[in-house]
């Protein structure tokens, strides 16, 4: 690979990240009039797949802090999507479950994906196995590099002016 190809790929990946961030911030109606952000709908999907998760488990699976997860979950409780129950394992822990509205929204999101992600899914299915593995490997390296960068940034001393 030439340096210019690397720069082109890096620029494209950066642009994709910026576009994703823009999309992530915008609420979306999945078909019932309730506006949800991507983090909210993906948390709904997570809880539909694994009901009873703790706040810590949701934070770990979503790759966000427990504080950010708690704030988001409070909003989702207020919207009537999630309910908190005392964990069967510990009175000090909370288990999270979807409400009937949360279950409905989960189904609407599944339908949304079937209608909108199908062309991308079909493209990935058409790729040769080695190409798909190389793409996944590239994304995993990119993910590790971003995580390492975040850790480095978290360790830097704060400078005040």
Brief rundown of the structure:
This protein has 161 residues and is mainly alpha-helical.
Walk me through the structure.
There is one protein chain. The protein has 161 residues and is mainly α. It has one domain: Winged helix-like DNA-binding domain superfamily/Winged helix DNA-binding domain (Arc Repressor Mutant, subunit A), CATH 1.10.10. Helix content is 68%, strand content 9%. The chain contains seven helices and four strands. A hairpin with a 7-residue loop joins strand 3 and strand 4. Helix 2 crosses helix 5. It is globular, with a radius of gyration of 19 Å. The model has no long low-confidence stretch (mean pLDDT 89).
**Strand sequence of the main sheet, in spatial order?**
1-2
Mean pLDDT: 89
- Spans of 5+ residues with little confidence (pLDDT < 50)? none
Question: CATH superfamily, please?
Answer: Winged helix-like DNA-binding domain superfamily/Winged helix DNA-binding domain
Distance between the termini: 43 Å
Shape: globular
CATH architecture descriptor name: Orthogonal Bundle
Structural class: mainly alpha
CATH topology: Arc Repressor Mutant, subunit A
Count of individual helical segments: 7
What is the N-to-C order of secondary-structure elements (H for helix, E for strand)? HEEHHHEEHHH
Biggest sheet character: 2 strands, antiparallel
Name of the level-1 CATH class? Mainly Alpha
- The share of residues in extended strands comes to 5-15%
Give the fraction of residues assigned to helices: 55-70%
In total, the number of strands is 4
Q: What is the number of independent domains?
A: 1
Rg (C-alpha, Å): 19 Å
